[in-house]
Design a protein that fits this description.
single chain, 329 residues, alpha/beta, Helix Hairpins, 2 domains, 5-stranded mixed beta sheet, DnaJ_C4, J_dom_sf, Molecular chaperone DnaJ, DnaJ_domain
Length: 329
């Protein structure tokens, strides 16, 4: 598979990383993407082939150098004229020759926060197809409410959920206007709470499931399965079963799993989490997490990278949103 066969996405977008990441970060991103795309984890053969092809293009220093040069060449006026990018005729039609007045370098596409929100299908579509969320609810950004568990209120859980919602509202919602936030997905029925998800964010063709955990303040080491500090250890909530279930229900969406780690202090930099050597090795993973459990600031960075690098971060998929809203508590 060549770079052209990746479609409108670059190899970096397929792997959900910025083009300027270092080689180690790129390798970790490839492993995460390969785990998500593997058919045994709810992915598809085509998605797995795309991830493998992207890695072939940037997996070695020499291959990455050649690929980056090809991207730079494609972004010049001559390259845009040759590929039909940014021309008067648009993609696949009209003239492919740039005008003399357009020979200066043009800026890239605006970030998602500056793009108008698109709806698929459009809000004006009548009648609404089966399974597609109605226009009024599609335009809403927040859906669902936290649910209390058990006979007695779980104050720790309620505080965790409130802090996750504040973090999403402050740092994710302003950057991704097309993101739709859901609280309280019940995927396994009344007596299978292990498949319930506290929070989810749908943005274009990406869906992030978010769990949370609270630990004492301190410095922790992540080994791929547990967070350890001194003689104590804590395991994050399992996201894999819910990720696999939703990936099968929404084959057009890439599902990711994330865990926010917090302390009793409302501090986005705490706790400190370090990766043990080999923690990113697939053999060390006990779950399908897209990124290692992280404190607030690092979790926001991972979420924005995952959600913002999809193929349509400015689009609301009303069919996918409808399926998710139907499974709220």
């Amino acid at each position: 598979m060549s770079a052209a066969e990746l479609g409108p996405q670059t190899a970096y977008e397929v792997l959900a990383v910025r083009p300027d990441v270092d080689a180690e970060q790129l390798r970790r991103a490839y492993r995460r993407a390969a785990r998500r795309a593997h058919p045994d984890a709810g992915g598809s053969p085509e998605a797995f082939r795309r991830v493998s092809a992207a890695w072939e293009l940037v997996g070695t220093a020499e291959a990455r150098r050649r690929y980056d040069l090809s991207l730079s060449a494609a972004d010049t006026p001559t390259g845009r004229a040759r590929t039909g990018r940014g021309t008067a005729g648009g993609r696949g039609g009209g003239t492919t020759t740039a005008r003399a007045s357009d020979t200066s370098a043009r800026p890239g596409p605006p970030p998602p926060s500056q793009r108008p929100v698109r709806y698929l299908p459009p809000l004006q579509t009548e009648p609404v197809p089966n399974g597609v969320l109605d226009a009024a609810r599609s335009a809403r950004r927040w859906h669902g409410v936290p649910r209390r568990r058990g006979l007695l209120p779980d104050e720790h859980r309620q505080r965790r959920q409130a802090r996750v919602l504040r973090l999403l509202d402050a740092d994710v919602a302003p950057v991704l206007p097309a993101a739709r936030f859901l609280t309280g997905l019940s995927l396994g029925g009344r007596f299978q709470r292990g498949l319930d998800v506290d929070h989810a964010v749908l943005c274009g063709d990406r869906l992030a499931l978010i769990g949370s955990m609270q630990v004492p303040d301190g410095t922790y080491t992540w080994d791929g399965a547990q967070l350890s500090a001194h003689r104590s250890a804590a395991s994050p909530p399992l996201m894999g079963p819910a990720m696999t279930t939703l990936q099968r229900s929404l084959p057009q969406v890439t599902v990711g799993g994330f865990v926010l780690v917090m302390t009793d202090r409302d501090e986005r930099l705490a706790p400190v989490i370090r990766r043990a050597r080999g923690a990113d090795d697939p053999a060390a993973q006990q779950d399908l997490l897209t990124a290692a459990p992280a404190a607030g600031r690092d979790l926001v960075r991972e979420l924005l990278l995952f959600l913002g690098t999809g193929s349509a971060p400015d689009t609301v998929d009303r069919a996918a949103l409808g399926l998710l809203v139907d499974q709220l508590y």
